[in-house]
Write a structure and sequence with these properties.
Low-confidence stretches: 1-22
Radius of gyration: 18 Å
CATH architecture of one domain: 2-Layer Sandwich
CATH class of one domain: Alpha Beta
Strand content: 5-15%
Helix content: 25-40%
Strand order of the largest sheet: 3-2-1-4-5
Order of helices and strands: HEEHEHHEEHHHH
CATH superfamily of one domain: Ribonuclease H-like superfamily/Ribonuclease H
Number of helices: 8
Structural class: alpha/beta
Largest sheet: 5 strands, mixed
Number of strands: 5
Mean pLDDT: 90
Distance between the termini: 29 Å
């Protein structure tokens, strides 16, 4: 796991603009355009994958795209097929100015809770960027103690191209990590459900009990025999 980096910097307000429920391809750069119009130059989208599963890490990604980048069809990674996500992942990494990834494992999730672990993963993703962003667009969350202007967008992965890009990077990265977990613990079939609480997963959990990558603080893991 990467080292933990704590920050004590002050949060600042970003551009204020009424949120839009429009998630069309034509308008997924709206919030980026607002940021550019207010003088920001390196806008990073942030999102996570893996808050809900019963096992495995939570993964966050930060992506800074060129100002003129357009990815038709890019949206919330959960609404894309595996093949679409893989293709977007490759295209985003090829075109992005910077991509950062942060991973926080289940032992830390159990110690500090899933929300704090998610925020920590996002900070790690920012610190993994090769370029320092000057404005953040974040899916639904606010990062405290950061001296970077930021905007939290509900359903941001459907409304901001930068957040959608981060959503794809985080999802593809986590899925690949869960394939590694499947090789280590094949009896749980992590390959098929990626740690989510499917019937197949719960059946394996009841039969074998939790393994080292299960989140012991999660109720559905604790209550399995």
């Amino acid at each position: 796991m990467p080292p933990v980096f704590d920050t004590t910097r002050r949060q600042e307000a970003g551009p204020s603009e009424p949120d839009s429920a429009d998630g069309s391809d034509a308008d997924r750069t709206r919030f980026e355009r607002i940021g550019y119009a207010q003088g920001f130059r390196r806008i990073a989208g942030l999102d996570e994958a893996g808050r809900g599963p019963l096992a495995g890490p939570v993964v966050a990604a930060a992506v800074i795209l060129p100002r003129d980048a357009v990815f038709p069809g890019l949206r919330d990674s959960k609404k894309l097929t595996v093949l679409q996500r893989e293709r977007f992942d490759e295209a985003i990494r090829r075109r992005a100015l910077a991509v950062g990834v942060g991973v926080v494992g289940p032992e830390v999730i159990d110690r500090i809770n899933i929300l704090q672990a998610t925020l920590r993963a996002m900070v790690r993703a920012l610190e993994d960027l090769a370029l320092a962003p000057d404005y953040l667009l974040i899916d639904a969350l606010t990062l405290p103690d950061l001296q970077i202007p930021q905007k939290a967008l509900i359903r941001g992965d459907d409304r901001s191209q930068s957040i959608a890009a981060a959503s794809v990077i985080a999802k593809v990265t986590r899925d690949r990590l869960m394939l590694e977990c499947d090789r280590l613990f094949p009896q749980y079939h992590f390959r098929s459900h990626k740690g989510y609480g499917t019937a197949e997963h719960l059946e394996a959990l009841a039969r074998f009990g939790p393994c080292p990558i299960h989140r012991k603080s999660f109720r559905r893991v604790r209550h399995e025999p």
